[in-house]
Amino acid sequence: AEYMGVLPTDVKEMSSGLSALSQVIGWCYFVAWSVSFYPQLILNYRRKSVDGLSFDFQCLNLLGFSCYSIYTVALYCPHGCEVAINDIAFALHAWLMCLFGVIQIFMYPKGQNPGLHRWCIAVIVLMVIAIGVNVALSANHISLPNIDLGKKGLGSWDWTINWIGNTKAAISLIKLMPQVYMNFRRKSTVGWAMEMVFLDLTGGVLSFAQQVVDGANKGSWDSITSNPVKLILALQSIVFDLIFLFQHYVLYRHRAGHTTMRIPLYNEEVLATP
């Protein structure tokens, strides 16, 4: 028998309850992730230094959230059901905070910070060129043979939007590696705001939880498979934040006493020059 669009009352109530829960979780992770950008900005401002902060991470993060903003807005416009409004709000806010972060790395003394590495510049340039080529093909309606089964081929706007989203996913997988390596080389987490790590971890867990709730509500996992970028964003946050916590509280705990926003304004270790 077919429901003909009518569901039993108990199913409606369950669906309504899970939908409400998803909304609450969504806005909670939006708040956690959005607020997570501020501790690092405040720490940089109070120290008047960006020593201990990876420039590679900051620049990759800016490009990543530029892509994520475009990706979420593009998915929402024609297919409003695929992207929650809090995803768009988060993406745009994150992009703005990343922009402020990049401005800071050019404003404040870098101390012993090695700056932006050539490999990072090369990665950013190649990614921007690849996106530009895809946009040019789509804008000029240059359709190439379909090489991705089940989706429109290279040269379509669907392909381009997916490419931009996948670029964000790729950046998410590598953007925090420079910071992990910098902490390892310095044997310290000084200059890296741990408040940000806790908030980011909270946001990652909640974002993943929202996708699970949405999957349970719909009776399928389309909410995850239809937005893999969001899934990768959540999982990479969880993994890297656990690494940072291990570095801060286990590996380098004896040198991590001044990594919070309460750090003295003129800490000799932080502001030391080569």
Tell me, rounded to a whole number, the average pLDDT: 80
Model regions low in confidence, pLDDT < 50 over at least 5 residues: 1-14, 258-274
Quickly count the helices: 11
Rounded radius of gyration (Å) = 21 Å
Fraction in beta strands: under 5%
N→C terminal distance: 77 Å
Q: What's the SSE pattern?
A: HHHHHHHHHHH
- Main sheet? none
How many beta-strand runs? 0
- Briefly note the structural class of the backbone: mainly alpha
- Residues in helix, %: 55-70%
- Give the overall silhouette: globular
What would you note in describing this structure?
With 274 residues, the chain is mainly alpha-helical. The protein is built from eleven helices and no strands. The protein has helices at residues 9-35, 37-47, 55-76, 85-107, 118-139, 157-174, 177-186, 194-218, 222-225, 228-251, 268-271. The longest helix has 27 residues, at 9-35. The termini are far apart. 38% of the residues are buried. The model is unreliable at 1-14 and 258-274 (pLDDT under 50).
What's the short version?
By secondary structure, the protein is mainly alpha-helical. Helices cover 69% and strands 0% of the residues.
